[in-house]
Amino acid sequence: MSRIALIRDGVVVNVIEADLAFASSLHGYDAAVEAGAAGPGWAYADGLLMPPQTPEPVLSLEKLKQQLRERTTALRWERETGGITVGGVRVLTGIEDQNRIATALIGAPATVDFKADSGWVRLTLSELQTIAAAITAHVQRCFSAERAHHEAIDALETPEAALAYDALSNWP
Predict the structure, then answer these.
(1) Mean pLDDT of the chain
(2) Does residue 132 sit in helix, strand or coil?
(3) C-alpha neighbours within 13 Å on the C-beta side of residue 7
(4) How far is 51 from 56, CA to CA, in rounded Å?
(5) Could you report the per-residue pLDDT of 67-119, keeping only the tens digit for each?
(6) For the DUF4376 domain, which residue ranges apply (predicted)?
(7) Other C-beta atoms within 10 Å of 73: how many?
């Protein structure tokens, strides 16, 4: 006794425990072959049993748009907090960095010791204001780019257009 796959129209329709000779004599089947690991739904062609193909899940246009919006928001965050260079000084732009600069501006003496990403610098109040303005402009450009991406994503009309959308372009 063996596991025997009963084939109809190139598909395994049943698997039984039987002798191959007996299974081959059953009416209503095109073939009977040793099943191995095969089960109902497997394909049979040219003497080979093949597992059913699992189709790629098809995502709706709205789900694709949602994924694109999430990706562009993540990209905006990466760009926003990735730092900038102002006057040859590499400045971090994370939320904590932005808050420290804003706090320093509120009660700043004539000069401040500032730990930039590129190392220590002594800045005048005017230089610190220039850095703060550059960070503000950078952050705004990042949000403007994210908004433009979200508006473009919202205008997509087909899943194919969503799959082809380039979320990596047009960032500061």
Answers:
(1) 93
(2) helix
(3) 21
(4) 15
(5) 999 999 999 999 999 999 998 889 999 999 999 899 888 887 888 898 888 88
(6) 64-164
(7) 13
